[in-house]
Amino acid sequence: MERAGAGAVGVAGPVVCGGATVSVPRCVIPQPPPELTGLAVRALDRVLAPDSELAELWDESDSGPQWRASVAGLRAALGPVAQRV
């Protein structure tokens, strides 16, 4: 088995998927390259910007708050990595 580099995340064990608990084999998810992380951060910032049409459409739906929370969570997860770019 190959060792994961710094920043890699290991995933294993039971996971809830669609209400069912399934077993997931151990796998390593490598950290994405900084240039891709930077692009993702810029895209998420644009989607959450005050003048975003996409955000406006979501805000008009019942799922708007959940969508905003999900996108904001993704953005927060990328934050520390993006600051190194």
Notes on the protein architecture:
The protein has 85 residues and is of the alpha+beta class. The chain has helices at residues 34-48, 53-59, 64-83; strands at 9-17, 20-29. A two-stranded antiparallel sheet has the order 1-2. Helix 1 (34-48) packs antiparallel against helix 3 (64-83). The longest helix has 20 residues, at 64-83. The chain starts with 8 loop residues before the first strand and ends with a helix.
SSE map:
Blueprint: E1 9-17, E2 20-29, H1 34-48, H2 53-59, H3 64-83
Antiparallel strand pairs: 1-2
- pLDDT below 50 for ≥5 consecutive residues: which ranges? 1-8
The 3D shape can be described as flat
How confident is the prediction overall: mean pLDDT?
77
**Structural class, from helix and strand content?**
alpha+beta
Strand order of the largest sheet: 1-2
Largest sheet: 2 strands, antiparallel
Q: SSE order, as H and E?
A: EEHHH
Number of strands: 2
Strand content: 15-25%
Helix content: 40-55%
Q: Give the C-alpha Rg.
A: 17 Å
Count of helical stretches: 3
Distance linking N and C termini: 30 Å
Can I get a quick summary?
The chain has three helices and two strands. The protein has helices at 34-48, 53-59, 64-83; strands at residues 9-17, 20-29.
Keywords:
85 residues, flat, disordered N terminus, 3 helices
